[in-house]
Amino acid sequence: MVEAVRREWPGAVELAVRAGGMSLPALAYPRLTGRPRVGDRVLLNTSALDLGLGTGGYALVVAVPERLPDDPDGPGHLVKARYTPLQATVLGADEQGSPHHEVLREADDLAGMPVVVADLHSALPAVLAALRADCHAAPPTAAYVMLDGGALPAWFSRTTAALRDAGWLAGTVTAGQAFGGDLETVTVHTGLLAARHVLGAQVAVVAQGPGNLGTGTRWGFSGVACGEAVNAVAVLGGRPVASLRISEADARERHRGVSHHSLTCYGRVALARADVVVPDLPGPFGEGVAAQAQPLAERHNLVRVTVDGLMEALAACPVRLSTMGRGLAEDRAYFLAAAAAGRHAARLLAGHG
């Protein structure tokens, strides 16, 4: 039973729900489930809580049985989360009934737009913080293209909602099976084109939604899609900027320094040439990061980027910075690496790359 409505952000409602004699945090997406009210009985999926997932630490509302949502009546015929009980019918920016169809039907070029590709959703605010700090004349119009390797509903992310409210994002484009963005597209390719030609983005960030999936194997992780995103950017005439996933605090050896995710994505999957940003971190750790990244020079441009002044930019971010439960103070290298990619994108916009 719903005990309290705690807070809301676009597309999502956070609840306190009494189940099994315990009060649980729960999340509902009203467009899928209807809007829960205090006193409602709700059907819950508690998998994320049972598994102790840090990112998805909510019970998820499946339905409000006594008050179901209205049947979808369009517009749109794109079905996402297909053939699941909560499949969502949305209006795709690229489908025939869309007001943007004529623009996207023949769109085929990003016109050199810088696109920062990152493994984790948590890199997004750090990339934007540096991008805005280094574009002194006027902040560029930025869009987020969300892949479907993590959360499928963009509504799950409080970060993107807050960045939009702060004016840091022109919008979110949800690609593939992801849904709930300001624009919906079938593929990452049309997602990038929609960011450029519909949202008017001068720069885009591509990453999976909140959460990710990894198995501790070389190939079994959702971030493999980063390499494919680099290829998509290049095919469409954009400028791919590869953000390295770097950590000085992760307890797992495979993610210390440059994560094996980045080395596999950019070293094996990305066939197109990208600017791989290597942050100029201090001391032996920074030297180790540079050495780990060096093999990527066989197929990419390694770009060393200073991190001077980036901590101040990160500290001014309008959202809380967190990755794998670690904040800026606990894993500076992670956020500085993402910010360095944003700094390089700013330089490309200024014509210095």
Order of helices and strands: EEEHEHEEEHEHEHEEHEHEEEHEHEHH
Could you give the order of strands across the largest sheet?
11-10-9-12-8-13-16-17
Task: Note the beta-strand portion.
Answer: 15-25%
Low-confidence stretches: none
Count the beta strands. Answer: 17
Helix content: 25-40%
User: How far is the first residue's CA from the last residue's CA?
Assistant: 56 Å
**Average pLDDT for all residues:** 93
Q: Which structural category fits the helices and strands?
A: alpha/beta
Shape, principal axes of CA atoms: globular
* Largest sheet geometry: 8 strands, parallel
Tell me the Rg in angstroms: 20 Å
Number of helices: 11
Your description of this structure?
The protein is of the alpha/beta class and 353 residues long. The protein is built from 11 helices and 17 strands. The strands form 4 sheets. It has an 8-stranded parallel β-sheet, sandwiched between helices. It has a 5-stranded mixed β-sheet with strand order 1-2-3-5-4. A two-stranded antiparallel ribbon has the order 6-7. A hairpin with a 2-residue loop joins strand 2 and strand 3. Helix 4 (124-134) packs across helix 11 and helix 7 (225-235) packs across helix 8. It starts with a strand and ends with a helix.
Itemize the secondary structure elements and their pairings.
Layout: E1 2-9, E2 12-19, E3 22-28, H1 30-33, E4 43-45, H2 47-51, E5 59-63, E6 78-80, E7 88-90, H3 101-105, E8 114-117, H4 124-134, E9 142-147, H5 158-165, E10 171-174, E11 183-184, H6 188-197, E12 203-208, H7 225-235, E13 239-243, E14 246-247, E15 257-258, H8 260-269, E16 275-280, H9 283-293, E17 301-306, H10 310-315, H11 332-349
Parallel strand pairs: 3-5, 8-12, 8-13, 9-10, 9-12, 10-11, 13-16, 16-17
Antiparallel strand pairs: 1-2, 2-3, 4-5, 6-7, 14-15
